[in-house]
Amino acid sequence: MSLRSQLLKGILEGCILTIISKEDVYGYELSVKLQKFGLDDVSEGSIYPILLRLQKDKYIVGTMRDSPHGPKRKYYSLTDEGEEALKEFRKEWQSIQGPVERMIEWGRER
Amino acid sequence: MAEHPRSRRENDRMGERKMNAKDLIKMNNEKREELTKENEAYYSDILLYIRTHLTLSEQQSEELLMELLDHLLEGQKEGKRAEDIFGSDPKGYCDEMIAQIPKEDRKNNFTFILFLMIQFAGWIALTRGALELIIGFFTEINNTVFLGTAVVKSMINFLVLYGVVIGIFSWLKNSIYKKNSKIKDFFVVFLLMCTAVTVFVLFSKIIPNFGYAIEVGWLFYLISGIVLLLLTVLINKKARITK
């Protein structure tokens, strides 16, 4: 996997953890939320490999539950480990975000 | 799959009875009918590809397949195609997911194989008993059975059957996302199986008679067949193998 796509995956992972930390969601709901925030370049299906990995790492758990209108869905909720991972992601993101933005600004000044 | 009895009861109370793999498969079959022809073709390949990976946890695989199907159905309502949602490289996409799906519990696998062996032996005994009963009306049957030989023969029998099943599955698995050589592959698998069966037949001819010699009639076969099949029903109830 290229560094670029690995980076994007890591960020997407953090976004998914953030959404799940707010409320339990199922797959389709999650992709709608990501799009609402403007991440519509991310192909919808790419959340499922990530959800599987997050489950494997025990950051989230999925349980089949009745949805408000309609059939049973697999809802994801954050575990304590997931909470920790999310904190870690926020820290990492903040340490990158500022410098990268400053650098881009600096690059624009000619 | 064995479940903890208490958690199951709790789930029932909360109206959250766990859907097991069998329920999910049934629901999947019903929902799949709502797909358009194009989406159905794309989705069915994913389904077959993931299901033919036999080492994966059945429960986890079926839950994932249901999620993907639900997502596709929602997308379809908005006029999206499966390719828009899951991308243009379904095999790569599936491989990525398969790498993350937990493996089936080893203990489950062992119980399952044991279960199959007993069931297989049960049907063989029952059939043989019935056949000998009928043929016995017309001719004299040699009822002598050498225990050692019988055991070895049944083991080989089972292994060959097992191999044939595994062979068919791996052919299926590999042919789903191949466009050209499906037929060629099929013949290779077919030839391999013919060889396996031939080897088996030859083998059983050269195995010498050994072990205790006992006289066994049709009644013995019928009774032991029935006992073995009852045993599988019992095991199934306890371990919930076919759920």
From TrEMBL, chain A:
SUPFAM superfamilies in the cross-refs: Winged helix' DNA-binding domain (SSF46785)
Pfam families assigned: PadR
Protein origin, superkingdom: Bacteria
Transcription regulator PadR N-terminal domain span: 16-88
PANTHER family per record: DNA-BINDING PROTEIN YIZB-RELATED, PADR-FAMILY TRANSCRIPTIONAL REGULATOR
Protein name: PadR family transcriptional regulator
